[in-house]
Structure formats: C-alpha cells, structure tokens
Amino acid sequence: MRDLQDVDSLLLKELKSCCATEYNFLPRETGLKLMESASTENHSGVSAKCRDTRVEELWSLTSFFGYCTQTFVQAVNLLDRFLTIMKVQPKHLPCIGVCCLHIAAKMVEEESNVSPTHELIRISQSKFTVSDLCRMEKIISEKLSVEPKAVTALTFLHLYYSAFTSLSAGREEIPSIGRLEAQLKACLCRLVFSKAKPSVLALALIAQEFEALQSVMLLKTVQQFQRHVKISDSELLHWKEHVAKCMVEYRSSECNKPDNKKLVWIVSRRTAQNLQTSHFSVPGLPTIPERSWDESESEDSCEDMSCGEDSPCGSLGSDGEGAFFPSTFLSCRE
C-alpha cells in the first residue's frame, strides 16, 4: 500500500472541498435532540422511532422502484433536514417522506426511470393526493437548499473507496462498494447516525470493515485519511462503535431488513369477499389431448384455453391466494 501522495491530486482536492461544504447539508442538531426526546405517544411532534420507521419504508420504496443508493441517501438527507427545522405533526410525515423520495429521484435518476406521482402514492399506500404531494414539494424546496450535488456520507464513501482501490492496486482484498453502501443504508435507518459528519461516518464504515479483514496496511491508510480530513481518534472510535452495534443488530434474525420487506395489498372487506368467491368458482380448464392434431384443431384448442376478460386468470392469477404482490410484478419493476 502506497502513501496518499500517490492518490490522484484531483480526488484529494475534491475530498477537501467536500469536507469544507459538508456542514451545509447537516440536519440541525437541536431538531435532532427534539426528535430523540419526543415520545411516540405524544402527537405534538415526530419521534425518533416514527422517523426511523418512515426511513425504512423509503428504503423499501427505493428497492421496489429500482432507484439507486444515491436517491435513497439524498431522500433521507432531505427528510432529516426538513424535520429538524420545521414543526411537523406525525400525520403529515408519510407525505413528507414520499415527497423527499420523489424530489431525490428527480435529481438523481434518469427522467424515464422516475415513477409518476400517482403511482408513487398508490404503491406507498398513502392517503394524500397528487396535489398534496405537489404542495409539499414546493414547501420543502423553499425551506431547504435542494441541490443535486449535496454532500452526504455516500459522497465520501465513494471518494474514499476510489482512493483505496487505486492505492491497493489489487494487492489487498477490499470489500465491494455494494456491501459498504448496504451498510450505510442500514445505518441511515437510525436517527443517531444523522448526528455524524458524513466524512466521519463514511470512514468509520470502511475502518470497521478493514478491522474485520485484519489488514495492517489498509488500517494504516485509514489513519492517513483520518489525518488528511482532520478527524480525531475519539470521534472516529465513537462512530465505529455505533456502526459495529448497528451491524450486529442488522444481521440478527430479529431484524426485519427494509429491502426484503414485501409490499402488502390492502383491500376492502367487500373486495376480499369477491376475491374469495371468484377463487372458489374458477372453472376447470379443458383437458389437453395427448394425440397429435392438425393445424385447425390446434387453433380451436388454443381458443378454448385462452383467458378472456371475464376469466379469473386475467385478474390476480397465482396471487389470488396470497397477500403480496406477484413475483412477476416485482421482477418487471426491477
């Protein structure tokens, strides 16, 4: 492993620039403390638990629509910054959360990949309207500095990773960027990590992984970056401990991973009864003859077995028995 002098000068310059501007995109500390002290039973403000639940739902929506990690991280950053400067009632949080995801998607994703507002509302099973979402988008944009190049922990994670990759030159085993991004998303589902400076959180994630590898050379390079961006030993150790604790909890069998959650159909009692009735009244399909047939017989047979508009095969299909989206629908979204 070589010295930081061997790292691309433009990369180090960008790292310094991001360190200088990261404070502009931090949530207000007083607002974070208010959320931590708020009770879930007290409806006067958003609690930490309520916020964490909303972020986990944003992760599920991000996975469902096939959005990238940057979109999710940007959405969480917007959400935290808005919640820490505005007095928000819990009943408005679903609209704010979905709106932050939509704003982030429009900034990060290709235009053709951005889900329409009505579809986003429908899949998130929210009770607000498209006009509500548009009004909230305007409020958030006015209150925050909505920039496509906001400096987040993901920004530093990619910069650090590029530097480590160039320095190792294949001589050291380095965890994949996908693994590190997944760990970052898990951390962002806990309000406590919103207190960390992005540059520190990203380096703490990498240092935690390198310690598991027991690589002396990689850990020495972490120390070099630590000095370069002026992070104290106590600060890095503090957030490494938080990251380690979060990873232990996340890997436990009791933890419900947001990206593995299934989206559930919510239907009325009448609709459920109709679905149940139609399920038991499915007509039997004609037996397919085993003998060979000519062209005319083939056309007739296909006509008999086709599913028309009135056929149950054209409705819920195999998902008629279950409560979740069909796997074919999920795969086509991806």
Automatic annotation (TrEMBL):
<dbReference type="InterPro" id="IPR039361">
    <property type="entry name" value="Cyclin"/>
</dbReference>
<dbReference type="InterPro" id="IPR036915">
    <property type="entry name" value="Cyclin-like_sf"/>
</dbReference>
<feature type="domain" description="Cyclin-like">
    <location>
        <begin position="56"/>
        <end position="142"/>
    </location>
</feature>
<feature type="region of interest" description="Disordered">
    <location>
        <begin position="289"/>
        <end position="324"/>
    </location>
</feature>
<protein>
    <recommendedName>
        <fullName>Cyclin-like domain-containing protein</fullName>
    </recommendedName>
</protein>
<comment type="function">
    <text>Essential for the control of the cell cycle at the G2/M (mitosis) transition.</text>
</comment>
<comment type="similarity">
    <text>Belongs to the cyclin family.</text>
</comment>
<dbReference type="InterPro" id="IPR013763">
    <property type="entry name" value="Cyclin-like_dom"/>
</dbReference>
<keyword id="KW-0195">Cyclin</keyword>
<feature type="compositionally biased region" description="Acidic residues">
    <location>
        <begin position="295"/>
        <end position="307"/>
    </location>
</feature>
<dbReference type="InterPro" id="IPR006671">
    <property type="entry name" value="Cyclin_N"/>
</dbReference>
<dbReference type="Pfam" id="PF00134">
    <property type="entry name" value="Cyclin_N"/>
</dbReference>
